């Protein structure tokens, strides 16, 4: 038998971890190193050996206000004193209702009804089911497919996976169980570049050709996240909205990564001045405290589904609208909106752009781009995911690259000095690559 970890013994903890645990997209045979974390405050992650790291990842977009935040801690503690959770079938509670109201108030009109679930992937599944049920209720049961663009990422469950990029999303491996969707090219015009109408031409053609089998288009507005950290022109989104209306296909905006200010607007759809028919939120929704996601839709879509067969929306997670998660989400939104978040994000964008600029001259680097509180260095060749994290840790920062991308999306509280340290470490590590 393996003995339990002795308190604070990082070595045995990591050894036990290797024996017992899967990590995201990892192997259990000779796995890459993991670092044991003992606490986290603000933008600092503290390792078991006392090393303190400047966190560049916000734990995958989610920890927007930093770790161990007094207001968020207090929200969880206050809610815990009355109840942690109660089933949402036939019961309701104040945190869920107040959070739904808040989300409807801050998201683009006419989004007005909210479905809570437990993770981003499930929020996407819910969105896909809403779109299919909506079309069936309108007397178009053949409209069950989705159109999306290449280079997207929408989650790891089967429906979500079917709309991820077909290559990086491993469609070959799972082809017998994945529904075949319609893929348009990735938008090519850069966010800050010139718009060319030709960028949407193939998408327009595919939409027209497949309209009778399409329930919806799903897309990450303006920023494609895990599928390649690509920032495309908002006009693409504006044109896509028009095309969806023309063909009576719903538009699903997956703002699980971009929501809550990350791109400089509260929601990335605002860059194009559009509103989707269905909106997915997750990640930063609870400030990174608890797992919660939301799928919002319009009254028209919700009522159409409710008037169709079987007269209800067919989804209902056990932990739907978890009270602790709803309470901390409310507190996180209040903390965000109570501060001049636009100028904060603009300051982070300037600091990231200045700090990453030296990377542009490196022969290893293909592109450097920043938008809001996101900084990306794209390399010519994939990095060694095993070798790089320890090099970042040695420089006092936490950065987790993938593929050809070294990227950061810091908490909104990170100051210029920490951003300078973080970006200098990236330039150094990237510059040392052979
Ligand atoms: C992370 C992410 C998801 C999946 O969310 P999970 O909570 O990991 O299931 C879906 N869409 C986008 C755009 C994401 O960034």
Topology readout:
Layout: H1 10-20, E1 37-41, E2 44-47, E3 52-55, H2 58-61, H3 70-82, H4 94-106, E4 111-117, H5 120-137, E5 145-149, H6 158-162, E6 182-184, H7 201-210, E7 214-219, E8 223-224, E9 230-231, H8 234-247, E10 250-254, E11 278-281, E12 293-298, H9 299-307, H10 323-337, H11 341-356, E13 365-371, E14 374-379, H12 388-394, E15 397-398, E16 405-408, H13 416-431
Parallel strand pairs: 3-15, 5-6, 5-7, 7-10, 10-11
Antiparallel strand pairs: 1-2, 2-3, 4-12, 8-9, 11-12, 13-14, 14-16
The site of pyridoxal-5'-phosphate has 15 residues, from helix 5.
Q: Would you write up a description of this structure?
A:
This protein is of the alpha/beta class. The protein has 2 domains: 35-68 and 340-432, Aspartate Aminotransferase, domain 1, CATH 3.90.1150.10; 73-337, Aspartate Aminotransferase, domain 2, CATH 3.40.640. Helices cover 35% and strands 17% of the residues. The chain has 13 helices and 16 strands. The chain has helices spanning 10-20, 58-61, 70-82, 94-106, 120-137, 158-162, 201-210, 234-247, 299-307, 323-337, 341-356, 388-394, 416-431, and strands at 37-41, 44-47, 52-55, 111-117, 145-149, 182-184, 214-219, 223-224, 230-231, 250-254, 278-281, 293-298, 365-371, 374-379, 397-398, 405-408. The strands form 4 sheets. It has a 7-stranded mixed beta sheet, with helices on both faces. A 4-stranded mixed beta sheet has the order 1-2-3-15. Strand 13 and strand 14 (374-379) form a beta hairpin. Helix 3 (70-82) packs antiparallel against helix 10 (323-337). The longest helix has 18 residues, at 120-137. It is globular. Mean pLDDT is 96; it is low at 1-7. Pyridoxal-5'-phosphate is lined by residues 119-121, 124, 153-155, 220, 225-226, 254, 256-257, 282-283.
